[in-house]
């Protein structure tokens, strides 16, 4: 992650350095707005929130990326119409771009709105559809999770490694309660009912990207959720892969940018997790 030995350097600034700079600047600004935002709107449903801080964070990141890499494409949550169809369509249109920045300006907006300190900025860069840089920044704890394809993943400058639990019985697993209450939430609740009795415990803390970063850091054994978007997952997926873990869809198919139903783990208990979801009819 050093500029001098990084192949991905343009105009003196590596892709990773720009991603880190964007996440740090956005995160710092977001924390000044904690408990202090002024506009709250609903998006696709009464459970899908957006504030002026989400929009401002995305604008800041978009402008900074454009300053360094004006030819790159940009896919940010707040630049896309709400709802799963529009998200899938936006990804479809953008995914063949040579360089595509995929950004969730605040992952965990409900937490941010309630001053529950578990949210992050998630920034990924994909080259021809493959994620090559992933940065997740938790501004409350000042924790920066960084991965580069083929070069490992780091937090606080220390190499991350997934946890060693080999079975669901000894695992700590996280999931989410999706804003889409028609399709995704009932399926996820089916999974919760089936998985909770099989694991050491479940956590549902409200930020998919941060849960993924925690799997990479070995703080969680695994994570699954139905109905996510590319910007929730892209950075976290690379963090986990570069930390020795496994990311697939809930049916066990390999991760791509188009995956919306994710199963991520330390690898050791991956099949057991996917099978448990299958038995529960909770794979989507
Ligand atoms: C949400 C969070 C949450 C997950 C939802 C996501 P947002 O993202 O990641 O944990 O359960 O499915 O939509 O709206 O806060 O960016
Ligand atoms: Ca999100
Ligand atoms: Ca968001």
UniProtKB/TrEMBL annotation:
Superkingdom in the source lineage: Bacteria
Family to which the UniProt record says this protein belongs: Belongs to the inositol monophosphatase superfamily.
Name the UniProt record assigns to this protein: Inositol-1-monophosphatase
GO biological process: inositol metabolic process; phosphatidylinositol phosphate biosynthetic process; signal transduction
Gene3D superfamilies: 3.40.190.80, Fructose-1,6-Bisphosphatase, subunit A, domain 1
Entry cofactors: Mg(2+)
Keywords: Hydrolase, Magnesium, Metal-binding
Pfam families: Inositol_P
Cited SUPFAM superfamilies: Carbohydrate phosphatase (SSF56655)
GO molecular function terms attached to this record: inositol monophosphate 1-phosphatase activity; metal ion binding
Keyword Metal-binding: yes
